[in-house]
Amino acid sequence: MTRIASHRGGTLEYGDSTPAGFRATAQMAVEEVEFDLHPTADGAIIVHHDATLDKTTDSKGAIVTMTKAQVCEATINCSGGAHPLTLPQLCAIFRDSPVDFRCEIKPGPDGLPYPGFVAQVVDALEGEGMVQRTTFSSFLIATLDDLALTIDRPRLWLVSPPVLRQLGPKAMLELAQAYEVPEIGVHVDTADAALRAQVQDAGLDFGVWAAHTADQIDAALDLGVKVFTTDRPSLAIARRAARTAPAT
Ligand code: FE
Prior knowledge:
Layout: E1 3-7, H1 11-14, H2 19-25, E2 32-39, E3 45-47, H3 68-73, E4 85-86, H4 87-94, E5 100-105, H5 117-127, E6 134-138, H6 141-150, E7 155-159, H7 161-178, E8 183-187, H8 193-201, E9 205-209, H9 214-223, E10 227-230, H10 233-244
Parallel strand pairs: 1-2, 1-10, 2-5, 5-6, 6-7, 7-8, 8-9
Antiparallel strand pairs: 2-3, 3-4
Fe (iii) ion (FE) is lined by residues 34, 36, 104.
């Protein structure tokens, strides 16, 4: 069965990386919750998509330059007045949920990995008892390589449309194999059966991300990908369930 990952807690249904979205996701018939992490200046880990607060909250600033208290004062847009979660707060929401973690380790505002952040995240997840329920993802090969040296957990490379276009499937797969990355995720609109076959023939798992519309969700299900992320988890659950419902 194709797995569903509720992207940032279901952005189009609950706002971007909101406590309400994550709490709702913990109760849903999805297999994974996708979220993004950034470090603060004083050693905390924040669940937020962008490296800055500028676009999705009432505040401004790069998370890495702010204290945890400063970041957690921000109000997330369309969240009913809620504030960004720390990683321990997210872990508390999912500790008793069957929904597993799909943890994206983000780069900083300069597009480069945060020094030492992979080890910091792995330590925190280990401390929370959640690391054995975590698949890691990143757009950055350097971060995936760092993960491989730090912990033996599933990792997947998020390949953006320009990178896929510039490298082409063959070079993309050669790079993945050179770094022993076992799984690739591409934007759903760049996925087709030929690419899926190429990835699978190379011995890698294949997934897609950003399947937000009904057509995109159907495309992911039609392709039979391993997993897809979606901002509309409720819609994805309904469309997957409709395919598996017994005929009457
Ligand atoms: Fe993400």
